[in-house]
Amino acid sequence: MVGNGDHQRIEPRASCMLSYWQTQHLCWYVVRRIEPRPHACQDCSDGYMCKTHFQIKSGTMVSHPGTYAGVQTCPPVEEVLEVPLDDAEATETAAASEVIKYEYHVLYSSSYQVPVLYFRASFLDGRPLALKDIWEGVHECYQTRLQQGPWDTITQQLSSDIYWLPLVNFIRQIYQQEHPILGQPFFVLHPCKTNEFMAPVLKNSQKINRNINYITSWLSIVGPVVGLNLPLSYAIATSQDESNAL
Amino acid sequence: MTDDKDVLRDVWFGRIPTCFTLYQDEITEREAEPYYLLLPRVSYLTLVTDKVKKHFQKVMRQEDISEIWFEYEGTPLKWHYPIGLLFDLLASSSALPWNITVHFKSFPEKDLLHCPSKDAIEAHFMSCVKEADALKHKSQVINEMQKKDHKQLWMGLQNDRFDQFWAINRKLMEYPAEENGFRYIPFRIYQTTTERPFIQKLFRPVAADGQPHTLGDLLKEVCPSAIAPEDGERRNQVMIHGIEPMLETPLQWLSEHLSYPDNFLHISIIPKQTE
C-alpha cells in the first residue's frame, strides 16, 4: 500500500494474474495432489472446480478414545468418512454433533484475471452456517493442527496472533456474494484483497517466483482459515515439481 | 453535448410506482394497509424501503419480525440487483403499479443474500464499482481516488444526489485521449429463461480495425439467442432502464450514459409481448 492514511491503494499483484487455462491446470493439479481418493470434485463446462467435504462438529468438549482425541472438533476428512456411524464410540459423538457440509469452488474472474475462492457451509438438512460459525468451527481445528508437527517456518509464523488477527478480522467482515454460475449465496475470498496478508509470507519464501506458486501459497494460507485444508508442504512440493520439470 | 447530459439525469431520476403488500400469512395485530412508494430505478431495495418496513412493523409484534425480504409473483427479489433491473426483467410486461409482497419470516437462504445493514449494501455497491473500473481502466482510476471520493459515490446514491454522485463518477467515465474508449465494457446480460444468473464476458468497445462496437455486436457475440432470428420476427426485447436502445447504438456511448451507478450496463432480455 502506498500513500498517506487517507489514500489507500491496493494494487493487484501482477504476479497473481493467471490466464483462465492456467487456473484450470492449477485446479486439476491441486485436486490430484491433495486427494488420493478424489471425492465430490467435478469440472463443468465453465471450468470451475468444486470440492466438497464433510466434517463432524462436536457439540461439547467430550474426549473419546480412538479417532477423536481431546478438543479436536474437526478431524481430517478421510478419518471422518471412515468412522462407521453405528460404531459404539461414534454413536456417542454423533448424538452430540452435527455433520457439516463444506463446499469450495475456485472460479476464474475475467475482470481481475485471477482465480477466486467461493465457499459456503451448511448442515445436511440445508441450514446454512453463518460466517462466524464457519470461522469458529475451523479456528479450533487449525489451532490444534498448528501445534502438531511437522510444519515449516512459514506456518509457525502464522501461528502468532499478530499475524492472524488482521486476517481473522478481515475474514469476519466478508459479506455474502452471489455465485456467478449457480446464482446462490456464497462467501468469497479474493486474492487481491488478501494481498497484504501475503506480504510476510512472500518475504520469507524463496520459492515464490512463479505465478502458480503465488496462488497455491495463497490458497494454502488463506484456505485453512475458512476450512479448506491444503497443506503448505504441498505448495513447496509443487514448486519442486515445477523446477524438476524445467 | 447538452442532450447527452440530459440522458444522465433521465436515467438517475427514473422511478417505478410500486405497491407493497404484506404477505397474508404474516401474523398481524390489525389489518395491514398496502404501502405505495415511487422506487428509484438506480437504487437497491433494502436502501430505499425503511418506510415500508416501519409501516408494516407497526401492525406486527416484535417476536414475529425477523429479516425483511421481498417477493414478486413467487420470485424472491435479489436486493443486490438494481431496482430497475428487477422490474425490467420480471415485471415490465405487467400493468403498473408494481405489486411487491413483503415478508418477515422464512428468509429464503438458498436464494437471497442477507442484508444485515446499510454497510452490506455499500460494500456490495463499491465492489461493483471497483470491478467495473478493473475492466475499464485496470483499476487505475478507482485506486487513485481517495477514500472520501469512494464515500461520496456511495453517499450520492444513498441520498439521491445527482450532482454529488457525478462529481466523482465523471472521472470513472473518462479514458485516455489516445484510446477510443474503455479497455473493456462492464456489462451483465440477464434472462429469466436460463440457469445462470447473468452473462458477463470481456468485450472491447472498439474492434481491431477501429470500428466502434455496437449493442448488436455485443449481443451477437455473447448472447446470440437474444437477437435471433436476425431477419424476420424478433422473439425478444433488449431492455435497459425500461427502454429498448437501437442495436446500432455504440457500446462505448451506452456504457458512458446508460450505466447504472455501479458503472455496469445491466441488460435484460425478455420475451416479446404478443399483442
Automatic annotation (TrEMBL), chain B:
Keyword Membrane: yes
Residues spanning the signal sequence: none
GO BP terms in the entry: aggrephagy; antigen processing and presentation of endogenous antigen; autophagosome assembly; autophagy of mitochondrion; axonal transport; blood vessel remodeling; cardiac muscle cell apoptotic process; cellular response to nitrogen starvation
Gene designation per UniProt: ATG5
GO molecular function: Atg8-family ligase activity
Record keywords: Acetylation, Apoptosis, Autophagy, Cytoplasm, Immunity, Isopeptide bond, Membrane, Ubl conjugation
InterPro entries attached to this UniProt entry: Atg5, ATG5_HBR, Atg5_HR, ATG5_UblA, Atg5_UblA_dom_sf, ATG5_UblB
Main function: Involved in autophagic vesicle formation. May play an important role in the apoptotic process, possibly within the modified cytoskeleton. Its expression is a relatively late event in the apoptotic process, occurring downstream of caspase activity. Plays a crucial role in IFN-gamma-induced autophagic cell death by interacting with FADD.
Assembly, per entry: Forms a conjugate with ATG12. Part of the minor complex composed of 4 sets of ATG12-ATG5 and ATG16L1 (400 kDa); this complex interacts with ATG3 leading to disruption of ATG7 interaction and promotion of ATG8-like proteins lipidation. Forms an 800-kDa complex composed of ATG12-ATG5 and ATG16L2. The ATG12-ATG5 conjugate interacts with RAB33A; this interaction is bridged by ATG16L1 and promotes ATG12-ATG5-ATG16L1 complex recruitment to phagophores. Interacts with TECPR1; the interaction is direct and does not take place when ATG16L1 is associated with the ATG5-ATG12 conjugate. Conjugated with ATG12.
Keyword Ubl conjugation (UniProt): yes
Stretches assigned to the Autophagy protein ATG5 UblA domain: 11-104
Organism, as annotated: Ictidomys tridecemlineatus
Lineage start: Eukaryota, Metazoa, Chordata, Craniata, Vertebrata
Name of the featured protein: Autophagy protein 5
